[in-house]
Design a protein that fits this description.
Length: 448
């Protein structure tokens, strides 16, 4: 282990960081940056530690947005596999010719994704592309045009997936019209929903309300149910605030969708691959979706890779959809090794879940601005409110906590309107997790 604690030599942003940030803003498209982004210029990284250009060392509780689940810079077994594969084959037009590597990855993915039915895979390079493919598969195979998606969801930023996204209006600013035909409905957020139901106390009531909403307000007033191709969902909403729905939600949603012949598309781009203690987050809810999309962690932080795994009978005809980099041999080898390593980490994630659950529950008891704590495995959301009764969002405190943590050597990311997500690499040790949770509490205290 290269470090055993964060080392802050100069308050971030240090002099070198300021220089890089200035240059970055001169050269890189502004839209990729949120003005509230942390002034963190990462030069290198090792294990769960990020080192900035001023030689500050931070503990990472972000996994670089759920990508570096295996830590940094590259898991040694992945690095070995890459080096070996580079001398054999990296790219050879996987969508025009054949190669054994993508077949091996497809065989692995179709065998581990839930569902006792035949499956096929489409490979791409990112989450948004994986979802674009899911949109096309749903429309083409059902010949239906409409989609249902949830308020608070994030499915990407290209025009199709953007139309499904509903986490922040800025994503859609001046881009109207996106793909028509998407109806957004409330997500069963136990803490904050349109009916004021306490979904932790009354999960069934909350789930029923959501499904009644779709049935009555959507199918009886807006669009015919038999023209809906698919419902897109995140098993736990990520960008929208790390919102965990009631346990029975997806089971009920599945029954509801089956009644109308509507497909279920499970976007596991942020929550998939071990993050929740199961390989796929939907396994926590005991449901087999018709289509699952993956990206982010799939390439182990070494290579960009997306995948859409779908029921075999939904398959498209030749020429209908394709790309250049799909079936990239090197990417396939990385993902195979990654899945093998991730499997060996699932038990550890389940054990660390207890630590996070306990410590964050204590935090909620101690600090009145912490309104809600929710999560599974190593995916935790902490929502800040000005007042526990009114639940008014407190994004200022949230931002202060993120910055106070950075000053103390812990890197965090916000999500939703006033939440913070804690998503350390799955390789984190208990000792490192405790260091991070201690700093997090200090930051919360400082921000109160
Ligand atoms: C759930 C989910 N779906 C899709 C995407 C889009 O992925 P990408 O940024 O790789 O296009 C994201 C990105 O944050 C995501 O969290």
């Amino acid at each position: 282990m290269p470090y055993d604690r964060p080392i802050i030599k100069v308050e971030p942003p240090g002099p070198k960081a300021r220089e890089f940030i200035k240059k970055h803003h001169e050269l890189i498209m502004t839209s990729t940056h949120d003005p509230e982004n942390l002034p963190l210029v990462i030069e290198r990284a090792e294990g769960v530690w990020l080192v900035d250009v001023d030689s500050n060392v931070y503990l990472d509780f972000t996994s670089s947005v759920a990508v570096n689940n295996l830590g940094y810079p590259t898991h040694p077994e992945i690095a070995r596999a890459i080096n070996e594969q580079l001398s054999i084959l990296a790219h050879a037009a996987g969508t025009d010719f054949y190669n054994p590597y993508q077949v091996a990855l497809a065989e692995l993915l179709t065998s581990i994704v839930p569902g006792e039915f035949g499956k096929k895979v489409f490979f791409s390079n990112s989450g948004t592309e994986a979802n674009e493919a899911a949109i096309k598969i749903s429309r083409y195979s059902t010949n239906r045009k409409y989609f249902i998606s949830f308020i608070g969801s994030f499915h990407g930023r290209t025009m199709g997936s953007l139309s499904l996204t509903a986490s922040k209006p800025v994503h859609k600013k001046r881009f109207y019209m996106t793909m028509p035909g998407v109806i957004h409905v409330p997500f069963p957020n136990p803490y904050r929903n349109p009916w004021g139901i306490d979904g932790y106390e009354h999960p069934r009531e909350l789930v029923n309300r959501v499904l009644e909403y779709v049935e009555y307000w959507v199918f009886e007033h807006q669009i015919p149910a038999e023209e809906v191709a698919a419902v897109f969902f995140e098993p736990i909403q990520g960008e929208g605030g790390y919102v965990v729905p009631p346990k029975n939600f997806f089971g009920e949603l599945k029954k509801f969708a089956d009644k109308y012949g509507i497909l279920l598309v499970d976007d596991e781009v942020q929550m998939g691959l071990g993050r929740t203690g199961k390989m796929f987050a939907i396994e926590n809810f005991g449901v087999a979706p018709d289509i699952i999309t993956l990206a982010k962690a799939l390439g182990a932080g070494a290579i960009p890779l997306g995948a859409t795994i779908f029921r075999r009978d939904l398959d498209l005809e030749p020429g209908v959809h394709s790309n250049t980099f799909g079936g990239h041999a090197l990417a396939a080898v990385v993902a195979i090794k990654n899945i093998e390593i991730t499997r060996s980490l699932l038990q550890r994630v389940a054990e660390l879940e207890k630590l996070f659950c306990e410590r964050l529950a204590q935090l909620k008891e101690r600090y009145p601005l912490v309104g809600d704590v929710r999560g599974l495995g190593l995916a935790w959301g902490i929502e800040f409110v000005k007042d526990r009764k009114t639940k008014e969002h407190d994004s200022k405190t949230r931002n202060r906590v993120v910055y106070e943590a950075l000053k103390r050597g812990l890197v965090l990311l916000g999500c939703g309107k006033s939440s913070i997500r804690l998503i350390p690499p799955l390789t984190i040790t208990e000792e490192q997790a405790k260091i991070g949770l201690d700093i997090f509490e200090e930051a919360v205290k400082a921000a109160h």
